């Protein structure tokens, strides 16, 4: 039996042994042989991960044992193992119990690498290499009193504390550096800044004052034309804009003075729309004076009360007056313009011809040429209406009346009948009789009369007998 060594857990290794006859001649290990591992003094046999090759490489009697010493196969650190034949014969004689090898798993080596099969880096002079990550207590402060740092060596200082820098050299501060106190720079006459975030600074036009080009305000970029779009910010003083032009104002909360409206001196289209909406939605209390202009277009509607119009309304309305919603209090004065459009569905000319009257109290005072005046002149009375009786029939009306009556008789009647107990109209009665004579179905004591489509029930009657009825009664 030989000791094979102290292995790392997870290591795979091989060992060999020879089986011989009583005369010492190599012979085959027969009887379906098995090699098992015992751990220390445990009686549990481990066979997982053990492979036995009999007559290895074709050599009679030479046996190879391969061990895969993983935790999954049942192996553990700080343990000793013996490889034992637990099944097998040699020359017909059992050889169970023979120990063919011994090994350990991380149990006997004084020094062992963290990673299996690595070696310690040792110089020719016997010094061992140092892995700083594995140095114990490396964060503990140690005074390197016997060590001198070469002046050519670059040192990154994370924090400068207590003592000022007094030599003539320069210091590059890292991005995470902290200055404990500004008094650490004790005798500086000033700092010349040549770059900001890596960009060179040009010489300012005025000494001591930086020339600044604003690229962003509150993360909003300036436009390509060089103008600046202000974000949702507050300008502390209107004097901050001293000599420029504001081309567009989207929203103005409070404006004390609009001295520079659009360049043509007029309101913008949006302003006009807003003013028109506000005026149309409010009441016009009174108009005093001369309203003499022209209204060309359409006055859709006036919503609100028109209190009074005092004076001369002399312009022209050449469009349409859609509707006036509200009260017109009074019109005092002369309404003398022209209405050349339409008021609703009545033309202005027809309205004038029919109702053109003076301020008299009888229709006989109507203006000459109007329909009202023509009726008055031909009534045969004094203009008080007493002659407008027994108006004779005009024979020319006969044809028109006959045509209207014929059209009414030929028109299709309504497709419905009156409910039971309700008097029908003439066309409902006509429809009921017509369908009663044309589309009927009798089932038992129920007679169903259908609509003109022959499918939809129109109404039903109940018979007093299913075989010999003598009377009917409206049911539906």
| Helix-strand category | alpha/beta
Reading off the top of the CATH hierarchy, the class of the domain at 3-105 is best stated as Mainly Beta
The CATH topology of the domain at 3-105 comes to Immunoglobulin-like
- State the end-to-end distance: 118 Å
Indicate the percent of residues in helices: 10-25%
- The shape is elongated
Count of helical stretches: 5
The number of distinct β-strands equals 28
Structural topology:
Blueprint: E1 3-7, E2 12-18, E3 30-39, E4 45-46, E5 50-53, E6 62-68, E7 79-90, E8 93-94, E9 99-105, E10 159-160, E11 178-179, E12 195-196, E13 199-200, E14 216-217, E15 220-221, H1 269-280, E16 284-288, E17 298-303, E18 306-310, E19 316-317, E20 320-325, E21 328-332, E22 338-339, E23 342-343, E24 346-347, H2 348-355, H3 371-377, H4 397-410, H5 426-436, E25 440-443, E26 446-450, E27 457-463, E28 472-474
Task: Give a verbal description of the structure.
By secondary structure, this protein is α/β, with parallel strands linked by helices. Among the domains are: about 5-105, Immunoglobulin-like; about 285-355, no CATH class; about 400-475, no CATH class. About 10% of the residues lie in helices and about 25% in strands. It is built from five helices and 28 strands. The protein has helices at about 270-280, 350-355, 370-375, 395-410, 425-435; strands spanning about 5, 10-20, 30-40, 45, 50-55, 60-70, 80-90, 95, 100-105, 160, 180, 195, 200, 215, 220, 285-290, 300-305, 305-310, 315, 320-325, 330, 340, 340-345, 345, 440-445, 445-450, 455-465, 470-475. The strands form nine sheets. Strands 1, 3, 4, 7, 8 and 9 form a six-stranded mixed β-sheet that branches. Strand 12 (about 195) and strand 13 form a beta hairpin. The longest helix has 14 residues, at about 395-410. The radius of gyration is 60 Å and the shape is elongated.
